[in-house]
User: Which sequence fits this backbone?
């Protein structure tokens, strides 16, 4: 069964500090891995999309890494700001001839709170 | 380019009633997916429509249904509402099928069932 597990479930950090969120998945083969940011009560917004051949991708202060061998991804946030307080969701898209176009698998998310 | 829009944004219904939610995708996008989000369950996939055809369906009872029109706008319907249907309903559009293309989410419809 395809699964995406995220850790930690929640995290509190001080403004200006860095943090790293983890995502482990069992989807195989997979086509791409996505990180979304979701503010409370709003729809998710895409941060990065990585294919299986990409190791890292950045979007401003957000850097996602991917290790397709160990089926792990991380999202690193540098110099956190109060506006980074949100849920971060890891999403994996299956690939391969028989899986292409199948449903995305969502992680449960990490709730990040940045305090002043 | 306008983003994904959902109407209404907030809705309060009574148990047993039915509800219809609407989603207008980004212009040119042909795929619309629907999700239910609750605090305890996270994002749960409902169904995906592409070119007016349902491509995939999540593990939800038949009370949940949807359709897509020729202009790619989509509606989802929930009949015989239950208290557990209270949730944020999100739709997302993409150029093509959800697995291969980036999805853009709407702001959601907050449904409260009393």
Assistant:
């Amino acid at each position: 069964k395809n699964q995406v597990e995220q850790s930690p479930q929640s995290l509190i950090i001080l403004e200006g500090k860095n943090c790293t969120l983890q995502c482990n998945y069992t989807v195989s083969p997979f086509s791409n891995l996505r990180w979304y940011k979701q503010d409370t009560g709003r729809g998710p917004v895409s941060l990065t999309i990585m294919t299986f051949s990409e190791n890292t991708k950045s979007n401003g202060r957000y850097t996602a890494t991917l290790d397709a061998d160990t089926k792990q991804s991380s999202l690193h946030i540098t110099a956190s700001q109060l506006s980074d307080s949100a849920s971060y969701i890891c999403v994996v898209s299956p690939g391969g001839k028989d899986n292409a176009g199948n449903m995305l698998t969502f992680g449960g998310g990490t709730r990040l709170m940045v305090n002043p | 380019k306008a983003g994904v829009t959902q109407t209404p944004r907030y809705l309060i219904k009574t148990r047993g009633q039915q509800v219809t939610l609407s989603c207008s995708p980004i212009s040119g996008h042909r795929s619309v997916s629907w999700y239910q989000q609750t605090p305890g369950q996270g994002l749960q996939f409902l169904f995906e429509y592409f070119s007016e055809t349902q491509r995939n369906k999540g593990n939800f009872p038949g009370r949940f249904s949807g359709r897509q029109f020729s202009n790619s706008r989509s509606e989802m319907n929930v009949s015989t509402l239950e208290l557990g249907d209270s949730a944020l309903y999100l739709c997302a559009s993409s150029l093509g099928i959800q697995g291969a293309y980036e999805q853009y989410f709407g702001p959601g419809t907050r449904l409260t069932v009393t």
Remarks:
- DSSP finds no helices and eleven strands in chain A.
- Chain A has a mean pLDDT of 91.
- The interface with chain B takes residues 31-32, 34, 36, 41-46, 49, 89, 93-95, 100-104, 106-109 of chain A (CB under 8 Å).
